[in-house]
Amino acid sequence: MAAENEQQRKSSSVSDMGAWAMNVISSVGIIMANKQLMSSSGFSFSFATTLTGFHFALTALVGFVSNATGLSASKHVPLWELIWFSVVANVSIAAMNFSLMLNSVGFYQISKLSMIPVVCVMEWILHSKRYSREVKVAVVVVVVGVGICTVTDVKVNAKGFICACVAIFSSSLQQILIGSLQKKYSIGSFELLSKTAPIQALSLLVAGPFVDYLLSGKFILNYNMSSGCFVFILLSCALAVFCNISQYLCIGRFSAVSFQVIGHMKTVCILTLGWLLFDSAMTFKNVSGMFVAIVGMVIYSWAMELEKRSNLAAKALNSVKHSLTEEEFQLLKEGVETTQSKDVELGGYTKA
User: Which InterPro entries does this UniProt record tie to the protein (predicted)?
Assistant: First the structure.
């Protein structure tokens, strides 16, 4: 039995690593593809919101094919919950884009870093979830490390601050909803994604061009599409399918906080690849911040493993206590019945 449990634990660990690896690789890949797609030295395709609509359209198509061929099962989720989730997710995408446009890069990075404590507070309010001291320390170390290597100039204005607050709240709520909907309706990550993707795709493809016009002053219908740009859009969409699936998978298997922490691992990877592939500057400040962030992630992994083992030990102890109580009750019950039987026999013998 112990060997079987150990085998299951190892199998689960391999699956966890696979989910994380898929998310990190696809996320870093899509950012690199989008950098080439949107930069002035690339194809200058500055329609980020519409591009996200393309991402979800391909994801919805993959989900439809999977359901039609029986590769995945479709479970019922109320339509109003799917619409509510899609509204929150789309507001998150638009608010993030507006925040980046209206604020400095430094303040934008600070707003992204603040999502971890916001998610912690929201999970505490919504789900009464508490975190160990080790997890809190690890989160602080990660935030400080990423802050050191990414935050430079910090400029903010009233409109940008409001957009940043909306982006932080909606993004945090979206990630919490992914986990809670999966648990509430016992639905898999891909099944949930295949239900929300069509709604998000439709709404983003309708509203996206107008949002992008407000952001860039350009309309997508006036853009001259080249074959190279079309190839990179397809590549971006294909990577987005894996990125979306792995996001839902990671949050479903772990938590929104864990997803945020691993997200900053992607930031470290992007900075490193930018230095290797695009000749981006790499200063001592960047390197030291990345080192601190990696140390924080190692501490977080250790703290989560510690918490997981503690929870398993607590469950095993409760199970043993429950089992002993039942056995004691049965022994007590058998003892009472035996005593009653002997009393009857003894009484009969006396009367005789």
Answer: Sugar_P_trans_dom, TPT_transporter
Q: Is the pLDDT of residue 135 over 90?
A: no
Contact 23, 264 (CB under 8 A): no
Using alpha carbons only, give the angle 71, 73, 77 rounded to the nearest 5 degrees: 145
CB atoms within 10 A of CB 226: 11
Q: Are 55 and 237 in contact (CB under 8 A)?
A: yes
To which residue do tokens 């919805």 refer? 60
At residue 226, the 3 state secondary structure works out as coil
User: What number of CA atoms fall less than 13 Å from residue 344's CA on the CB side?
Assistant: 6
Give residue-wise pLDDT tens across range 246-284. Answer: 878 777 776 667 777 766 666 677 667 666 766 666 677
pLDDT tens-digit series, residues 46-72: 898 899 999 999 999 998 888 888 777
Place of tokens 């709404």: 203
Contact 154, 104 (CB under 8 A): yes
The CA distance from 233 to 238, in Å, is: 9
d(CA 264, CA 113): 9
Q: What is the pTM of this model?
A: 0.70
Between CA 265 and CA 284 the distance in angstroms is 18
Three-state DSSP at 71 gives: coil
